Protein: S-(hydroxymethyl)glutathione dehydrogenase
Amino acid sequence: MKTRAAVAFEAKQPLEIVELDLDGPEDGEVLVELMATGICHTDAYTLSGKDPEGIFPSVLGHEGCGVVREVGKGVTSVAEGDHVIPLYTPECRQCAMCLSGKTNLCSAIRETQGKGLMPDGTSRFSYNGRTIHHYMGTSTFSNFTVLPEIAVAKIREDAPFDTTCYVGCGVTTGVGAVVNTADVRPGDTVAVFGLGGIGLNVIQGARLAGADTIIGVDLNPDREEWGRRFGMTHFVNARETGDVVAAIVEMTGGGVDYSFECIGNTDVMRQALECCHKGWGTSVIIGVAEAGATIETRPFQLVTGRNWRGTAFGGARGRTDVPKIVDWYMDKKIEIDPLITHRLSLEEINKGFELMESGESIRGVVIY
Ligand code: NAD
Ligand code: DAO
Ligand code: ZN
Structure:
């Protein structure tokens, strides 16, 4: 079949809207019609050419929501007509990682996914006979995409596509980091570094978990209003505050129970660790720093009981946890609508990248 898609033919070039050929689903795969997709920093990072694992030409996009239109042989967990969210972190429930019960990093299709291919080692996308690669196993910048069954989460049908797509990455990453990775408890104190599309979701996750004090840190003063809107109780303007760590330790009488780095800046990662309370404070790294970057602290920070952790996709097991997060949204326990600041057509997708990079949008969403 044919599908309209925004293709990254080369790094550092705008995406091109073209009609691709798309092969149907093989055994264990499903064809999904995307209804909406968010634009995230990770897409921009890959397009920038800085991602050493970036493959071109490819169809980027990993934050989508749509409807199953066809299923391949052997597919049992979803059917035609089901509403689904593609998962860049699949959940096979059979590999050693899934069975460990200790991680959401399923390894079932990791190798081929990283090469921009489906599990059988081929691509379903082509253009004038030339192979176009998949991206993060999702490729949501195409109106139709093919996914392994283990890489789709079936969700309720009354969830609107244009907002629920954000659960495919940003919402789950932020809220999940709080409830899965950190396990914040009522009364805890929390610091969130970087109040963008991820950090604001950490804030609302902390509010949901019952945190008492939620401190937001950002260089951009406009983000204070956004943070307060989602449950932040105190704001630290990092540009105006000489020693951010000392300020947070002072505000909390010794440091926070949990901190979250939502920027990808290794200097801020150190601040996030060092503002944690001696003896038990835990810092969770969410931001993705450039390839090759390293983090530093004095080992004594860990000897004296601080913990340094990281999380991918909020520690969420996709097929199990993503439908629950959609329920929390539909039950108004978390909010998504105000965070979708821009809606665009596929033809306007490059403008969506510009809005994100200028800091004008929290989340831009393409509606098919
Ligand atoms: P964003 O650009 O929307 O937000 C970043 C915020 O940090 C901005 O408000 C900016 O003003 C602020 N900031 C920048 N430098 C700062 C500094 N030195 N001190 C304080 N604030 C500063 O980004 P986002 O979409 O929220 O993504 C954040 C990070 O999370 C990115 O690195 C992204 O790649 C990563 N991410 C990780 C996962 C995961 O699973 N771990 C998933 C999605 C995104
Ligand atoms: O299993 O080894 C692995 C890698 C899993 C990839 C996890 C993705 C990390 C988060 C990247 C940002 C996503 C938008
Ligand atoms: Zn698995």
Residues 41-42, 169, 173, 193-199, 217-220, 223, 238, 262-265, 268, 286-288, 311-313 surround nicotinamide-adenine-dinucleotide (ligand 1) (CB under 6 Å). Residues 170-182 form the longest helix (13 residues). The two ends are 17 Å apart (CA to CA).
